[in-house]
Specification:
By secondary structure, the chain is of the alpha+beta class. 34% of the residues lie in helices and 24% in strands. The strands form 4 sheets. It has a 9-stranded mixed beta sheet, sandwiched between helices. A 3-stranded antiparallel beta sheet has the order 6-7-8. The chain has a 3-stranded mixed beta sheet with strand order 9-16-15. Bound molecules: flavin-adenine dinucleotide.
Length: 391
């Protein structure tokens, strides 16, 4: 998303931009849901991608108890989209000839005016500017600021997005239309409807985005990262390789612990997958003519659902700075001055919301925040809400 946002914005101010993606095949989002924010909608409009058929407008937030009874109900209109839809809109904003699959960044050299970029297999490109939008495990950042490492939050999520048509009638009637919370101690289960395959928004053909936060220390996570073939992975396991015994254990626990509609949702996911939660914020995001953007620059815990919005906003500020300065280096200094502190603020906000899970509460303020968030109404007021940056 970061690379595409940057390309779309910079093309609008007259730059020639190419996007190099390491994946040899088109990316798919495995049904990930994305909450929208005004900053995201604005970035999509301004970069030319637009917001056509972006997603599903949900009218209410509800909280349910273990038996599935509604214990809170709050009108809260919010547009919910999906990774696939956003990626399609942004891909269409960048000409096909400027988007290159199968190009794995390896290293860069720079002399103050130009960057030479080396890809696996020997391909080399020269540019005025290299934008590292290569995600939380950024290879660009690994060369420029190897000391910056994402920090494990002490919890992970199981997720997936089953088809609406596969859900039980009771699930479709109770939680499906809503942004739904189930909040037992040290856990969070959140769900909301998103578009179906090929961005199908019609009733009966949509999906339900399921997210289950669970606490687990580094040793637990390491054990989970052994795949079906017995191979140890560093950070997470590609979904098709997640061990079957892990999924069987998850389903057994879910039957005991989840409200029936959320258990039904989880059971209907073809292959649930887990994502460990990390965060970090790099104080330096401009390194001569190579810069970091999106998750490569900073990544917050996903409680605000703001990662893509931040990527779009980073790209917007970068393009504005380049358009309003004659000198590239001065424009980049502006980008550094504006975006690095903002990233830090967003990351810290994510940590505050993460105190709900009760992991590693270090300060009195953490414990106060934890206490406040034990009230599910506070969670409904804070999780993935728009305009939190201004607030
Ligand atoms: C559980 C969870 C829920 C989330 N929910 C939301 C939400 O509701 N709303 C929201 O806005 N955000 C959400 N996010 C965050 C969001 O997914 C990220 O912030 C967003 O994807 C960042 O985009 P990016 O382009 O910076 O990084 P990425 O999406 O990681 O993309 C990086 C790209 O760079 C490519 N790449 C990596 N290395 C190389 C290399 N060496 N050479 C070439 N290419 C390379 C990768 O293949 C990838 O395509 C969530 C994240 C998580 C984990």
């Amino acid at each position: 998303m970061s690379g595409l946002f940057a390309a779309a914005f910079l093309r609008r101010i007259g730059w020639d931009v190419d996007v190099y993606e390491r994946s040899p095949v088109e990316l798919v989002g495995r049904g990930a849901g994305i909450t929208t924010h005004p900053e995201l909608l604005q970035a999509l409009e301004l970069c030319g991608a637009g917001t056509h058929d972006l997603g599903i407008m949900v009218e209410r937030r509800i909280a349910i108890d273990r038996k599935g009874r509604v214990i809170a109900d709050k009108p809260f209109p919010q547009l919910l989209t999906s990774w696939d839809r956003l990626q399609r809109l942004l891909r269409d904003a960048v000409p096909a000839e400027n988007y290159h699959l199968g190009c794995n960044f390896e290293r860069l050299e720079q002399d103050g005016r130009e960057v030479v970029i080396h890809f696996t297999g020997g391909r080399r490109e020269r540019a005025d500017l290299l934008i590292g939008g290569d995600g939380i495990r950024s290879a660009v950042r690994a060369q420029l600021a190897p000391e910056i490492q994402p920090i494990y939050a002490g919890y992970y999520i199981w997720r997936g997005a089953p088809n609406e048509a596969d859900l039980a009638p009771a699930t479709r009637a109770s939680i499906f239309p809503h942004f739904t919370f189930y909040l037992p101690e040290r856990q969070q289960v959140i769900g909301y409807p998103i578009a179906g395959f090929d961005n199908d928004l019609s009733p009966g053909r949509r999906r339900y985005n399921f997210i289950w936060y669970r606490v687990g220390d580094a040793a637990t996570l390491r054990a989970m990262c052994v795949d079906d073939n017995g191979r140890q992975h560093d950070y997470s396991v590609p979904p098709p390789l997640i061990r079957r015994d892990l999924i069987a254990g998850l389903l057994a626990e879910a039957e005991d612990e989840l409200p029936p509609a959320f258990f039904d949702t989880l059971r209907k996911i073809d292959r649930p997958f887990f994502t460990p939660i990390y965060d970090f914020s790099s104080p330096q995001i401009v390194f001569g003519r190579a810069i970091l953007l999106g998750d490569a620059a900073s990544s917050a815990r996903p409680h605000m659902g703001f990662g893509v919005a931040k990527a779009g906003d980073d790209a917007r500020v970068l393009a504005d700075a380049l358009a309003s300065h004659d000198d590239i280096d001065r424009a980049l200094a502006h980008y550094q001055a504006v975006r690095a502190p903002m990233a830090e603020r967003i990351m810290l906000h994510g940590r505050k919301l993460g105190t709900h899970l009760g992991v590693d509460l270090k300060t009195a303020q953490d414990r106060e925040m934890w206490k406040m968030l034990q009230d599910y109404r506070a969670m409904m007021d804070w999780i993935a809400v728009p305009n939190f940056v201004a607030a």
